[in-house]
Amino acid sequence: MKLILSRKGFDSSFGGCASPIFEDGSFVSLPIPEKSARMSFSDVGGNRRIEAVVEDLTEARKKPLKANDHVHLDPDLRIESRPRKPGWRPLFGQADAAQRHLDNHGVEVGDTFLFFGWFRRVENRDGGFRFKPGAPDIHMFFGWLEIGAIWRLWKDRLRIPNWASEHPHANADYPRNTIYVAAGSGTTYNGGTFHSYSDQLVLTEPGKSRSRWQLPKWFYPAVGKAALSYHGNVARWSLSENCADLQSVARGQEFVLDGNDYPEAVEWAKRLIAENG
DNA sequence: GTAGAACGCCAGGCCATTTG
DNA sequence: CAAATGGCCTGGCGTTCTAC
What we know:
The protein is of the alpha+beta class. The protein has one domain (2-276). Helix content is 13%, strand content 31%. The protein is built from four helices and 15 strands. The strands form three sheets. Strands 1, 2, 6, 7, 8, 9, 10, 11 and 15 form a nine-stranded mixed beta sheet that branches. The radius of gyration is 18 Å and the shape is globular. It binds a DNA duplex through helix 3.
């Protein structure tokens, strides 16, 4: 099995601010703006009115984001984000160079995506949201998807089932357009978002900038084995007593780790999902 | 000819610095 | 505080060079 650490949601260029962690510890990864998309912030919050949060957090900017700005809802992990058709399951679409990276690493059915993004605590003051002064910017896991099927839409002729038709990569014409479907059967599936904040979900080393990560010790690149993709340079890594520290790369969306080379990864991911999913 | 190596360029992220 | 700017980094990919 392979693990794929996947950077998704608001970042410094798309969205331009952190996704919020609320005062009760719950959080939501904000979908990135995309003009040509079919849905807006107002359409994808479901029980969580993310459009209000987005407007509050960006209103001081020159070009604030608005509730009816269109968004690319991907990965689509929360059933409650939208009214769903029967049979719905979490989906994740990828294309272009990032999809090639996944192909090159042989990502296949049975592998698991762990999605992370840029998060920061927010608080509610005078009826509006704002980032909590002094709260750190962190990279944090917010959801997962175990691959049950891969729709290689760019080369295989197949009909997208009705329940998946709203996904932004469905009936779209991206190069190497591919959709990953959550594993499962019937109404159960293995994918979703984590329910609330836990230190276990945080990648960023406390007190450091968000790209400096603190990982389990076994993450450290083993001699003769493939390192976490994009992170083969050992100078990026350092070992301390209990963990491996990593200067994560600025570039890249998907970082692949081969469970054959790092057997601890399988249990680690299972536990992360079991305890936070 | 053809496969593979070498090269240069680019995209797309984060971040330090500067500016307001 | 936030916004703008430029630097840095690494895999993808097209082009050219090299070996057979």
